[in-house]
Amino acid sequence: MKKMLLVGLILVFSLLSACSNEPTAIVSKEDKQAHVQKFFDEMSAIEQEGKSSLEDFNESLASYSAGKATDKQLKKAIDVFQNTATDILQQVNDVEISSGLPQDIKAFLEDSKIAFQSAYSLKEQASQGADSATVTAEQFKELNQNAELAMMYGISKLNEARVASGLVEAESAIEAK
């Protein structure tokens, strides 16, 4: 009877541990690279959207300054810039990092994501200040410059993850910066 109870307990614990939500370690080089590449692709797409949005806003601002755009057109450009900045920040927040990655690669990706979140948070602040009487042109420029610095740090951490996963050689990651 005791043996049956012991065997039953062992089976229950075995089943529970098999059904647990513990992440499966990603051990193959190809899987590591696939996860890092997916993260890279998502962040690259987000970054491109952010660059396009800022370029469009700057063009609208230049047109307004040159007298080629109306107040209404500038307000619309500011609204689009603000909405895009908020949307991009949410997209960055939604990018997932596999918990099964080796700790070093996972740490690089987490640092990269935090840097991208900071960058897009700064860009969101800049977009909200674009039509504020309390934010000067210099402050707007400084927010965008700080966002670019955060972005560069995020890219450097992402490149470290790419090197650690074997996607790229260290020399080509340095050139990509």
Structural features:
6 helices
Verbal overview:
The protein has 177 residues and is mostly helical. The chain is 80% helix and 0% strand. It has 6 helices and no strands. Helix 2 (29-65) runs antiparallel to helix 3 and helix 5 (137-165) packs antiparallel against helix 6 (170-176). The termini are far apart. Mean pLDDT is 83; it is low at 1-22.
Number of beta strands: 0
Strand content: under 5%
What is the terminal-to-terminal distance? 67 Å
Give the helix proportion (percent range).
over 70%
Helices, by number, come to 6
Determine the structural class based on helices, strands and strand pairing: mainly alpha
Radius of gyration: 23 Å
Which outline best applies? Answer: elongated
Largest sheet: none
Unreliable stretches, pLDDT < 50, 5 or more residues?
1-22
Succession of helices and strands: HHHHHH
Summed over residues and divided by their number, the pLDDT gives a mean of 83
Short description:
This protein is mostly helical. Helices cover 80% and strands 0% of the residues.
Q: Which helices and strands appear, and what pairs or packs with what?
A:
Layout: H1 2-18, H2 29-65, H3 71-94, H4 103-129, H5 137-165, H6 170-176
Helix pairs in contact: 2-3, 2-4, 2-5, 3-4, 4-5, 5-6
